[in-house]
Design goal:
alpha+beta; 3 domains; six-stranded mixed sheet; 11 helices
Amino acid sequence: MFPITPSYVNEPTSSVEYSSKNMDHLGIVAMVCREIDLAGEIDRIVGVDPRQKVTCGEAVVAMVLNALGFVDRPLYLFPEFLGTKPVELLIGEGLKAEWFNDDVLGRTLEKLYRAGPEGTFMRIAANAYNEYEGRFFHNDTTTMSLQGEYKHEEGDLDAVPIEITHGFSKDHRPDLKQFVISLVMSDDLPVFIQALSGNASDKIWIWDSAGYSEKNLGEISGSYKWITRVPETLSEAKEALENADTEKMCSTALKGYRLFSIEVEYGGVKQRWVVVFSEKAFARETKTLEKRIKKEKEQVEKEEKGRGTGETWKRRTTSDGLPYKSGVCGG
């Protein structure tokens, strides 16, 4: 036993307040959001207003946390959900649960819509996976059933780009209207997501260029949507590549990639071709071409030296000496 010294006997005891918060599994989710810099990436995409107490990125992290078990409650109850959670620990220092109200969430969703939700998702996925390259892609859809009429008149300010309507219900609720979510996976990683109208079909054929023929297109185009690579041996594809101007191509959310699209008719089927330009692939093919040119030049000079002639080696390559690395996809 330690003696109590006089200096501590008459010293007043300070009161300490304790509080208890439920973290459950959300600590793991919050850590993943930090590892991929979810809040920071979204703020870079949509921007940050200095008047905001909660940035759009922080609001999205909160919605991700909220979605795990609280999706059936209206947005105005969001502070109630966060009130039982350690907000500063899960989302960011200095933040309070009451700041995450329906106005903040609504403005965040509007900004994300204007920025393009599909492109935003792809940028976040690319940032999270760096240069991960999956070889195989899988697409599937699911349906989300909704209560209500969801009638939109032409010119309605609340109209949305997708139609909430009846369709094939994977929830086994054909009596309810719905919308469709389409997700593309690369191995076990999500790379693209899109919301579609409730009657959208998930019958999409994807195959390589070997299946691109007038006969095949004529047989499936009436019943299915399809995506394929167009053979570059086709005269139409060669013409599309020759007329492609990389400087006029549209930039994409993925760094180093540009594209443009044209509408064509092949095999009696109207379709859209997309020409994709990759800076990395172009640099790689250019380097390969330069090596081949150097090798051929050395071989020709060696042969000419053996003959004892002074003929000048002429470079045999394309008109500008550089390859054009691209791909054409049709659908």
